[in-house]
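WARN no homologs supplied; continuing
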Amino acid sequence: MAVFFISVLTIYTLINLYLYFKGLNAIPALQTHKLLYAISFLLFAAVFIIAKIIEAQHSSLITDVLNIFGGFWLAFMLYGFLFFILSDIALLILKVTGTLSSDTIPLFRKWSFILTAGLSFILITGGFINALIPVVKEYNITINKPAGGKKSMRIAAVSDIHLGSIIRKRSIKKLSSILKEINPDMVLLLGDIIDGEIGPVLRGDLLQYFTCPKCNEGLYAITGNHEYIGGVNRTIPYIESKGIRVLKDEIVTLEGGIQLVGRIDRDASRFSGKGPLPLNELMKKADTSKPVILLDHQPFHIDESVNSGVDLQLSGHTHNGQMWPLNYITKMIYDVSYGYLKKSNTHIIVSSGYGLWGPRVRSGSRSEVLLINIKFDGVTGKE
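OK structure emitted
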């Protein structure tokens, strides 16, 4: 973990230094006010880190505001870096080809800065608006196994709520209204319910606003990596105090012999020294002649699910990149970074998540709630 945080902090620092010098070289007026510019830039760059440090000690409205502001700075870091890199490549090409003279380079830098700031603002603003409008993504699948007399089931699955300083009461009440509208039999929370430090959640008792009165089959959850950041010994008891059962490498048998398998998140070993059971060991307790639904926060090693006789795997974690073009990176990392895949007899669905991490910006994906309509022992089908 120490190596991870040092690496992240190093990258964070280098990107901010790059942006600092790009601004300094592009705007002549900053040359005569270097100290003021340096102090202002340092405050912008440090606010997200400062917010997290203060939040760990004492959560308040001030830390909420700092987190929101710092999140927008993270978004600007991404787009500022990308667009300035592109402008540097363009500048190099123009220099090499002799298209740009030394006298016009300052003008090029000035307009590169203006375009970068403008395009970043448009993407961040659009992504902010987009993040406020969650959608319901519906899938229709068939599991060719008997479930007693039960012929169908409606499951709502929600991943990556990230309750905390940024995702608060309004968002969780909106989620509850969506669940009321779609009227599922059961709700499954696929990890990262809590963003990190639980202080901001406890301060407003945010999960009290999460309701699904007609979910007769129950409310179940698994841990994500973020449940461990603020201390799993605090996050899990709080979640369970709201009537949500957290499955920790456990199997629950529902009506009709349907089995719900919930895994501990794979990152648990980083924080507690103990990771999840291997899936093949956990599945020894399952009856694969009956439907098996696996909840696994991170969609790694899909073949293990296929080989273990899982009928439906539900995952999240990826946010589908959250901000363009990061969605292209998640596609390279995961077998399924978003959406639906059927492999042999196993259906895999990965959600882009309901909430957000860092910036309240979604420029590369949508906030969503999954609605999965399952038919048992019918003709194989897909959405």
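Residues 379-383 have pLDDT under 50 and may be disordered.
OK
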